[in-house]
Amino acid sequence: MSNALLKGKKGIIFGALDEKSIAWKTALKCHEEGAQIVLTNAPVALRMGEINKLAEAVKAPVIGADVTNMDDLKKLFEESMKHFGGKIDFVLHSIGMSLNMRKGKSYTEIDYGFNQKTLDISAMSLHRVLRTAWDLDALNEWASVVALTYIAAQRVFPDYNEMADAKSLLESVTRSFGYHYALKKKVRVNTISQSPTRTTAGSGVKGFDGFITYAEKMSPLGNASSEDCANYIAVMFSDYTRMVTMQNLFHDGGFSYTGVTAEVINQMEK
Asked: Residue 158 is part of a domain; what is its CATH number?
């Protein structure tokens, strides 16, 4: 059901790969709520994914961009503003990749060259996106930028590996750049810390099936779905959250503030 939350707003969505992606669900929701969208992803992801199917559904152009390349990002924002005929109201950063995890390296034996690339792609890419928008004055006043993160930035999840460090850095960029952008243009910058979700990327984490079951038992409301996350992001893009910035917002069914549940205790006592 549409509430026209985003009627007249224009935004860029990074990271839609396939129908499992939170970015994919968010694009559908934003379109439903009246927004105009530009879709973007890395050139290799555009070849591997199904983004053209999404583009047709939400009537959006697809503009490829390598988030580690400032020239690509400049072109993305310039072409997006040309397409929209004006500045941008929201951006979703749904980007993450761990080269060490892909290579099967544990946290205690990470390759530091891979690690640098992981941090660059998964965290500093947000700084690059914000810096590009800042330099081009591409965002309207009261625009909203949301990046997806995970509670491993605050707590230890051994198999989440170097992505925990990347998410910590991502959240720090959110606070630091969010401060400066609020002063300059009233732009809001926040992260949403989502429940473990069965996306293509998330399913690549070692032991994911067991962990998602554990998280379900540890969350009073259960795990938040990708559709629920898309709804939350749409609210963060709307004018109803104009005074929220520099925050890490947990969207996890209560997992983040639950010490233990009766269900987990019962399971351990069996």
From this structure: 3.40.50.720
